[in-house]
Write a structure and sequence with these properties.
It is a single chain. This protein is 42% helix and 23% strand. Strands 1, 2, 5, 6, 7, 8, 9, 10, 11, 12 and 13 form an 11-stranded mixed sheet that branches. The longest helix is centred in the middle third of the chain and has 25 residues.
Length: 286
């Protein structure tokens, strides 16, 4: 390795030190999904970032989705995936598949990967300790729920003992004897609020909010919450970005200090955002 490479690595480590000190003992909720979940290389990078943050004293909570895996299983049983307003329509049969895949296969595979890479993870779902309690969102979505209460004690217990909680987004129904499917971005935001998190990070498949959706050079690096209505009215924030931004605004308005929309396709985007001057993606704050 030449001297320039040594200097670059040393500079990166020195630059990270004040951020490690800043976030030591603080809680960060990371919503994990999209291509970062499908690609083996990206999955390894995300999990390595989370383990490193945990080892330097950051209280990291992972909330995950599993849309592609659910779609694959539905296809295997000959059932068509159906979406209403961007949410998966969830009948009773689909809910069984959602619970099996999210709380079982996906959750335990993530826990196993973290533990195999030297971390200490515990898998949970919203049913454990009545973590997520929900009512039916609307009949047109089927068994899709709206979280009405979060009981974070089970997550705090894991964090207090040095574990990384890995949480799937199935909720306990309190209006019916059923489980509910919960949007992972929404669940992550509600959990971040309940935990009094310092940061909420949503990993996506885009760089962040773009002034021009066709030009990645137009990334908007910071958005204040009071700017959001205007950006929505102008169409800069549109489509699938709207619910993500709404989750971020909700989190900020309820005590979370910073929220971030990051491109999970960029290896180590979490560390770059948290432990460097430049950062990546779009930050939403008050």
């Amino acid at each position: 390795m030449d001297m320039n490479n040594y200097m670059a690595r040393s500079t990166a480590l020195v630059e990270a030190l004040p951020y490690i000190q800043k976030y030591y003992g603080k809680t960060v909720v990371i919503k994990y999904g999209g291509n970062a979940m499908v690609s083996e290389e990206l999955r390894s990078a995300v999990i390595s970032d989370i383990i490193l943050l945990n080892l330097v004293g950051v209280r990291v909570v992972m909330v995950h989705g599993g849309g592609p895996e659910i779609a694959d299983m539905l296809k295997k049983i000959g059932k068509q995936s159906h979406f209403v307003d961007g949410l998966r329509y969830t009948d009773e049969e689909t809910m069984d598949i959602v619970q099996q895949i999210l709380c079982g296969k996906v959750n335990k595979n993530l826990v196993s990967t973290i533990n195999n890479l030297g971390g200490r993870a515990i898998g949970l779902c919203g049913l454990d300790g009545a973590l997520f309690q929900a009512k039916k969102l609307d009949e047109k979505y089927g068994l899709v729920g709206k979280i009405v209460k979060v009981c974070p004690q089970v997550v705090n217990d894991c964090l207090a003992n040095g574990y990384i909680p890995v949480i799937s987004t199935v909720a306990l129904g309190i209006d019916n004897d059923t489980s509910y499917n919960i949007n992972a971005d929404t669940a992550a935001a509600e959990l971040a609020i309940a935990l009094g998190a310092e940061k909420l990070i949503l990993l996506t498949d885009v760089l962040g909010v773009l002034q021009d959706p066709k030009d990645e050079k137009t990334l908007i690096r910071q958005i204040r919450t009071h700017e959001v209505p205007g950006l929505m009215a102008s169409g800069v924030i549109g489509g699938g970005m709207i619910p993500k931004i709404e989750c971020c605004v909700n989190a900020i308005e309820n005590g979370v200090l910073r929220t971030h929309i990051l491109d999970g396709r960029i290896p180590h985007s979490i560390l770059t955002e948290m432990l460097s001057h430049q950062g990546v993606g779009t930050m939403i704050w008050a």
